[in-house]
Write a structure and sequence with these properties.
Shape: globular
InterPro entries: BXL (IPR044993), Fn3-like (IPR026891), GH (IPR017853), Glyco_hydro_3_C (IPR002772), Glyco_hydro_3_C_sf (IPR036881), Glyco_hydro_3_N_sf (IPR036962), Ig-like_fold (IPR013783)
Protein name: Fibronectin type III-like domain-containing protein
GO molecular function: alpha-L-arabinofuranosidase activity; xylan 1,4-beta-xylosidase activity
CATH architecture of the largest domain: 3-Layer(aba) Sandwich
Signal peptide: 1-15
Keywords: Glycosidase, Hydrolase, Signal
Helix content: 10-25%
Length: 465
């Protein structure tokens, strides 16, 4: 919004943009623009380009919201709330468990993890995030936690920390000085000094080292993924105040990691494949742009795909569903056109149904059996994708339709039921910007975190006109 010029204020305010998020990173006359509306609305009124009634309307909307929330009511049960109500054992436990659930195991050569504290009595702990000062474990738009448990503190609860230990844990990554709103990264690499340090400790360590990364976005750690002396890699995101305990729980086996990446980790060369100024999600072949996100990217191999994540056990899938069909009514002009690949010779009379004008009550139901083939119980996230008919042009490769987290005891099986709404699960945003359900044979696809097991089945979608 701060990139907009002064004249854009008037239509924005009148269109209902009542609230400005304040602090700006843009400077004007040597000082930052702290508040776009405050900076420009007064001048707009003085110049006769904006009425006071327009400002009154924006303020009225905001104060009405505050009133509906009881902000001015001095409600005793809310007015008396303080830190003691927030920082309870229950809430700290919730923050702790949330951090554990979000940790993703990216590499675990030779089952290096988990470490057994009964056998490994001491570890060496290095890296800039080991002591994790305030705000290193926090993401953007977060309030202060009740306390900070650093990774070093969490690890010290399990084993002794010693520079002479044969096992090394390196905690690195980035922070909000490098990535946040208004502060875009220039590359996808770790800071150079960290890469050099990691390689130094890997070479010096008697055993393969463990790398723990704190970051919000993906980082190209190809050097670590391929390195034989870097045995395990964990991504902890920005785990919050209880992050140190959560990281230690995963490293020492108190918790079996079940997190899966919420975004694709591209290799650093991706920044040369597509400019930041390109807003296209779909590939642009004439310019050589490979597209964005797991839905559309068709370029060279990525480091870690969306949904990737290992476990201390092995999960496999089975399903008894080998295919199904569904018919949607398409009366009353609900049919829309569809973009087809040039090789498609004939197309149906009703190519797609407009989701916005349809009742969308049809569903597809199935069960997925999650089989734990290992000797350790663990939580597993079942990700269900749908893929549109292959003849549709510029459609998503696949898209998440549903997911469920389930705990499966060692050597056991859990049955996970799914019911997909056809419009929500199989609808795609067409090139015309309509959200439509395409006619033809779509596919349901379920892949585990390391792509070692998958099941799929076709779903034939017809329309009754």
């Amino acid at each position: 919004m701060f990139l907009l010029s002064f004249p854009s204020l008037i239509p924005l305010l009148r269109a209902g943009l009542d609230l400005d998020c304040a602090e700006s990173w843009i400077e004007e006359k040597g000082r930052p623009l702290r508040d776009f509306l405050s900076e420009y609305s007064k001048a707009a009124v003085e110049q006769g380009k904006l009425r006071e009634s327009d400002i009154d309307n924006a303020l009225r909307n905001q104060y009405m919201t505050l009133m509906r929330l009881g902000y001015f009511d001095n409600i005793p049960r809310y007015a008396s709330l303080n830190e003691t109500d927030i920082c309870t054992d229950e809430h700290r436990s919730l923050a702790h468990d949330g951090a554990r659930q979000g940790i993703v195991l990216l590499k675990n050569d030779g089952n290096l993890l988990p470490l057994d504290p009964e056998k490994i009595l001491a570890v060496a702990v290095h890296g800039p995030h080991a002591r994790a000062p305030e705000k290193v474990m926090d993401g953007d738009y977060t309030g202060p936690p009740c306390r900070y448990v650093t990774p070093r503190q969490g690890i010290s609860k399990h084993v002794k920390i010693s520079h002479r230990a044969n096992t090394t844990i390196y905690l690195g990554g980035i922070n909000l000085h490098i990535e946040r709103e208004g502060n875009d990264r220039e590359d996808l690499l770790l800071p150079k000094n960290q890469t050099e340090e990691i390689l130094h400790f890997a070479k010096a360590s008697q055993n393969p080292i463990i790398l723990v990364i704190l970051s919000g976005g993906g980082i190209d750690v190809s050097f670590a993924h391929k390195h034989p002396k870097i045995g395990a890699i964990l991504w902890a995101g920005y785990p919050g105040g209880e992050g140190g305990n959560a990281i230690a729980d995963v490293i020492f086996g108190r918790y079996n990691p079940g997190g899966r990446l919420p975004l694709t980790w591209f290799k650093n060369k991706y920044i040369q494949q597509i400019p930041m100024t390109s807003m296209e999600f779909r590939p642009v072949p004439e310019k050589g742009y490979p597209g964005r996100t797991y839905k559309f990217y068709d370029g060279p191999e990525v480091l870690y795909p969306f949904g990737y994540g290992l476990s201390y056990t092995k999960f496999h899938y089975e399903t008894s569903t080998d295919g199904t069909s569904v018919t949607l009514p398409a009366t009353g002009g609900h049919c829309k056109g569809l973009s087809y690949k040039p090789s498609v010779a004939t197309t149906p009379s009703c190519q797609a149904v407009d989701v916005a004008g349809h009742a969308c009550t049809e569903t597809v139901s199935f069960n997925i059996s999650v089989i734990n083939g290992g000797g350790r119980g663990g939580a597993h996230v079942v990700l269900v994708y749908t893929a549109p008919p292959p003849e549709v042009a510029q459609a998503p490769i696949k898209q998440v339709a549903a997911f469920r987290r389930v705990f499966v005891p060692a050597t056991s099986t859990a049955t996970v039921p799914f019911t997909l709404n056809v419009c929500k699960a199989f609808g795609i945003v067409e090139r015309t910007a309509y959200t439509v359900v395409p006619s033809g044979v779509s596919k349901v696809l379920v892949e585990n975190g390391d792509s070692s097991s998958s099941v799929s089945f076709p779903v034939k979608i017809d329309f009754s006109v």
